[in-house]
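pasting for ref. prot 1 ->
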Amino acid sequence: MVIHAEFFSFGRMDVHQLREFLVNQRRVSGWTQEELAERSGVSVRTIRNLETGSNTNPRRSSVELLLNALGGAPAAPAGPTVWYSGDSSLVPTQRTRPEHDRTQPVPWHGPRPLGDPMVGRETDMRHILASAQRSRLMVLTGPGGVGKTRLALAAAYRLRPLFPDGVAVAELRDCPPEHLEPVRSRAELDRLTEGLTGDLGGTGRRLLVLDGAERVVRQTARLARRLLDEHPGLHLLVTSRRALAAGAAEGWEVEPLRVDGPEDGDAGVPSAVELLLRRVRSSLPTLDLAPHMPQVTALCRLLDGMPLAIEIAAQRLRSLPLSSLLREENLFHLLDQVDAGALSAHRTLSDSVRWSYDLLPAPHRELLHDLVALPDPFSLDDVLAGHQGSTGSAPQLSHRLAELVDASLVQTLRQGQYQYRVHALVRHVVERARQQSVAPCGSDVDEYRARAVSAAHSAA
């Protein structure tokens, strides 16, 4: 189904025809505006304004994303649309899957994306969809709890028409840490991926998502190079708290949601606030937070716009008043009592950061302790000035700071002079560890070592 030409003519757009098409095709497909937003990466507000006619000059990139999403709708008569990337947008072509295969769904192996619409990720999604077509290796980085997995799975779902041999997802979080057992970690990584690529041959086209590669980042880089050499039609989408040293990989840093400033989100509120309101409405429709918007914004600001923290806070609001969560000294202690298993691969909120802290060498931990004491944002000069006369030269301190950034424990602000900040969740984990004078108990690393010892005893 070719749907671009009828809306674009000599550089001008027939907005009325576009409006009619969006409304009719969305309804025929059985999608709500929120579902179309989820599949296209265009905000609900933009879709609403287009369908009501209040937006008479939409961005071409937004229109193309909507048309592409509707081109792959179940009710589309010509089957899934195949896309190519001309610049940074997705453009449908007349090329479709073979006639005999049009009714067959694209295979999907592994965890599937959540069905609820994403919030505040339109820019991320647009970049990932375009980059995944011009590069065979895409790496999403960011701190624990920022939403890398959800974003990767949602992007893979939208990209699936490009890959007739399907999408496969491998979860790498259970691989043994490569710095503890490199041989076992390599063997486990090879085993996980062999079952998902062994049938491809030389011409198969498949998207392989490697989720949670931070435990085995070097092994993943090695594996990526080998797989891309062996399978010319294979594309890789990797999520990791650390960047991969893998040649021509395209990287994208997933940042927290916005807390302040204008945003093209639902009701025009910042995306972090919109996420909290959505989660509260879905789990507790009788709770009206509209009269308390300043306090809602303040809570999202305390949580630094981290999606996992916001979703857990929304759960907490079922039993605790908003005022109790606004006490900064108790905030993360209250949220840590909530089981995050349904929202994340981690048991609690702090688990999303804790194991990264536990893996740090002692000098890096000491530096992170010092950084927590600095007011945000701080510069490299501030770090060096605070360590004058102490152990560690300026190059060593600079290297350790860079390592903390690479571990997604320190965020870099790159506008003009580089500045840095430590997210509130990281501060909470570090301060608690410092108070205990030991690494936080119950960490993934401690549990992994305990399981390894138990397994050795059982084998004996």
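and prot 2 ->
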Amino acid sequence: MDGTERKNIHPGLRVMVVQKQDQRTGRLTEGVVQDILTNSAVHHRGIKVRLQGGIVGRVQKIGGE
């Protein structure tokens, strides 16, 4: 599944996100989606989500690795 399409993401899904401050390094943070923040159906850098615990980032991978 693709992290750039909103239809693939829903609350409760385990994902890997890149936070704003980690965009240069590409460091990923794993968590569970609490809220979807991007309104558009597709976003080329990844759909922005809030994870449980309050971390905000763009989805790079769906599922933990």
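The chain is about 0% helix and 40% strand.
The mean pLDDT is 95.
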